[in-house]
Write a structure and sequence with these properties.
Low-confidence stretches: none
Largest sheet: 4 strands, antiparallel
Number of helices: 2
Helix content: under 10%
Distance between the termini: 32 Å
Radius of gyration: 13 Å
Structural class: mainly beta
Order of helices and strands: EEEEHHEEE
Length: 101
Amino acid sequence: MDGAQYLQDDVGCVNKFSVRGTASGLYFIDSITRNLVKFDGKQLNNVSLTHGMSRWFTHLPVNGWTPELQGQACRLWGDPVNNDVYVNSPDKSICFSEVLD
């Protein structure tokens, strides 16, 4: 890599399990604003805001995963067959369908 290009300097993720790549982009949970964000290769899109999920995401634990915090961090999973992105917290889950996007 010969350099870096910043798209934004106020968005990011500290939990490696809160990042998931799919065929249409890279999803992550922003550790500061607690939003689901998608990077499609060109720009960042706030998925939770544009799809009415912001309130659900504000209560998620976004701390990084450590052995001591096992089961307390939020994780993202992907279903490549149905093009779904699953967000799992210790006590609840939500599914985002890329097909309906």
